[in-house]
Automatic annotation (TrEMBL):
Entry superkingdom: Bacteria
InterPro entries assigned to the protein according to its UniProt record, in alphabetical order: AAA+_ATPase, ABC_ATPase_HisP-typ, ABC_transporter-like_ATP-bd, ABC_transporter-like_CS, MetN_ABC_transporter-like, P-loop_NTPase
An MF annotation (GO) of this entry: ATP binding
Protein name: Polar amino acid transport system ATP-binding protein
Organism: Arthrobacter bambusae
Subcellular location: Cell membrane
Alphabetically ordered keywords of this record: ATP-binding, Cell membrane, Membrane, Nucleotide-binding, Transport
Topological category with respect to the lipid bilayer: Peripheral membrane protein
Keyword Electron transport: no
ABC transporter domain segment(s): 22-266
Main location: membrane
Length: 270
């Protein structure tokens, strides 16, 4: 494990080193003959929060899924920490990695979806220790101790023995975040984490994400929460039709979008 395994306690100053953590170059993705990603370039530096917005169907989820190789790519390269994701390159050609190498790469990348995807028959604590114990082979006692710390961090220390159905959607989503963090990922991907929540529950989840960002975690966040983008994002990228239309400082993109399509989209979500 690299030093970044301790990213939760990493002082913010370390994040200012600012290496490129995620490098996406010329990525294309087809589903059949549907060209869903059409040459995506995107870089996310260590410790940065990259917010991704765009209309439904623009390819945001597909791009996130490509970053942890839940989808294959049709062309281009995705690197995390300089390691090619999902493939090895030989004579300029990509060959898909073995499952165990794909699994190793995925362990380093946490993902939180719109739907919480918790195991319904397991308690909150069991949900969180599942992967550390089963996948990483951690002992249950330290795994539980860590899970309890993570629950405390997401404001749910008192819910360890509850079942998901006994929690609100916002609480379930915070458990899902804690569960992803239990694997000590170097990168966190969020795909519309608050879209399925009742409005009054959105703030608590965004607060947890804001804390995580402050701790120095590198994050790519697909969201329509423009306030979050403005306040927490280091970059804001607008996608439409499988291409990046524009990207930049969130305040600038929001205040003075350069493209008509960005203006049109922002006028609908602001
Ligand atoms: P977004 O997250 O921006 O709403 P998606 O990445 O989910 O967009 O989808 C982009 C396009 O790709 C859509 O037209 C969608 O229907 C299509 N698509 C997504 N996943 C699949 C799939 N597994 N098979 C075929 N088409 C898909
Ligand atoms: Mg989506």
């Amino acid at each position: 494990m690299s030093a970044s395994a301790h990213s939760l306690s990493r002082p913010a100053s370390d994040a200012s080193v600012k290496n490129d953590l995620v490098k996406i170059v010329g990525v294309h993705k087809y589903f059949g003959d549907h060209h869903v990603l059409n040459g995506i370039d995107m870089t996310v530096k260590q410790g940065e929060v990259a917010v991704l917005i765009g209309p439904s169907g623009s390819g945001k989820s597909t791009l996130l899924r490509c970053i942890n190789h839940l989808e294959t790519i049709s062309a281009g390269r995705i690197r995390v920490n300089d390691e090619l994701i999902g493939y090895k390159e030989k004579d300029g050609k990509l060959h898909e990695l073995h499952l165990k190498d794909i699994a190793r790469q995925r362990r380093n990348i946490g993902m939180v979806f719109q739907r919480f995807n918790l195991f319904g028959h397991k308690t909150v604590l069991e949900n969180i220790i599942e992967a550390p114990v089963q996948v990483k082979g951690q002992d249950r006692v330290p795994a539980k101790r860590r899970a309890q710390e993570l629950l405390d961090r997401v404001g749910l220390a008192h819910r360890a023995s509850y079942y998901p159905a006994q929690l609100s959607g916002g609480q379930q989503q915070r458990v899902a975040i804690a569960r992803a963090l239990a694997m000590d990922p170097e990168l966190m991907l969020f795909d519309e984490p608050t879209s399925a929540l009742d409005p009054e529950l959105v703030g608590d989840v965004l607060d947890v994400m804001k804390d995580l960002a402050k701790s120095g975690m590198t994050m790519i966040v697909v969201t329509h929460e423009i306030g979050f983008a403005r306040e927490v994002g280091d970059t804001l990228t607008f996608m439409d039709g499988g291409v990046v239309i524009e990207s930049g400082n969130p305040r600038e993109v929001i205040a003075t979008p350069q493209h008509e399509r960005t203006k049109g989209f922002l006028s609908k979500v602001l």
